[in-house]
Known about the structure:
It is built from 9 helices and no strands. It is mostly helical. The radius of gyration is 19 Å and the shape is elongated. The chain starts with 19 loop residues before the first helix and ends with a helix.
Amino acid sequence: MKTSKEHSAPADLAGMVPGEGAAVAAAFQAGDRAVFDQVVRDYKDRVYNVIYRLVGNHEDALDLAQETFIRAWRGADKFQGHAQVYTWLYSIAANLAKNRLRDRGRKGRNQGRSLEALHEAAPGALPAAAEVNPRDAASASELRDALDVCLEALPDIYRLAFVLRTFDGLSYDDIAQAAGCPRGTIKSRLNQARKRLHECLSGRGVI
């Protein structure tokens, strides 16, 4: 891989500006490690968190987050800057996570999700806390366990859209770029994810 003279990287790439993606793509292709290191610092936590919510395993998430940045560096020629940096990274991370889930039989989902956080972040996905029957949901732990099972049961395409929207707060357009499909498809997948989660939780008698 060719290298260039190291120079000061932008102070913060997380503050997106028009053309920023193209600038980072050019820097990557020029072998600018300073910019690459800054991208890693800006996005490593967000990339790790998204992967962890998809694969549910700390070691796998760390491994795949590292692999995400390695592939971003090595595949710089494939990034032309049309997308923002974080949607490009998420598209790599999502593909790696889906492959890992497939390889291990989609076992070991994330534990300890907050039902209240899900309701606030994705209205309509789950009922309000006041609607939960305490006799059906004997404990918060039982409810979380049921939610984990229901999230595990979602098809990958629905779970990915749901995680990126609910936990990372991406816009429909950003999720569409990361998933490589139209905006309308993402909205449809989110609606299906919320519907299936509600049906699954209802069927398990926890709501």
